[in-house]
Every structure is written in C-alpha cells, then in structure tokens.
Amino acid sequence: MGEDAFALDHFQVGEQGRITDIQAEAELLQRMAALGLREGCVVQVLRKASLGGPIHVRVGTTEVIMRRIEAKRIVVVPMLDLMATP
Fold it and tell me: What domains can be seen in the chain, in order of their start residue?
C-alpha cells in the first residue's frame, strides 16, 4: 500500500476514497466487480458495525455490505470532500 492509501476497513463513517487496488483471488475480484467495486471507483463508508462486524459502503448508486476481511483487501486513497465548508 502506498503512503496515502489505506485498507477500506480503516475508513470512518462518511469518509470516501478512490479504489486503487483490490488484493484478492480471481473469483473474489470477479464477485466484487459485479457489485461495482473496481479500481478507479469512488467508495463511501455509510456504516460500520461494532465488534468487527460488517461494513456498509456505497459505490456509485449501489450499496454493498461486506465482511471486514473483504474490506481489508480493498486499497483506497482518501478523497477530500470538495463540497465541505470550513
């Protein structure tokens, strides 16, 4: 992972970033791609369950709930919210 890149499971609720890599075998890569999780896509964390439970994310117009172990395989570079006011 690069200096500015993190695993998706490190993101907090409301944070978003651009997927730079998915470290998974071909079958899981294909399944994630079918859900819209591909390199270059923007993903936003909507909810995180407590005690290591699943993560609810939005990619495009699709919402996906995934296990933390899968979220750890998705490398994401954080994006600044350009619409935020200081």
Answer: 6-78 (2.30.30.90)
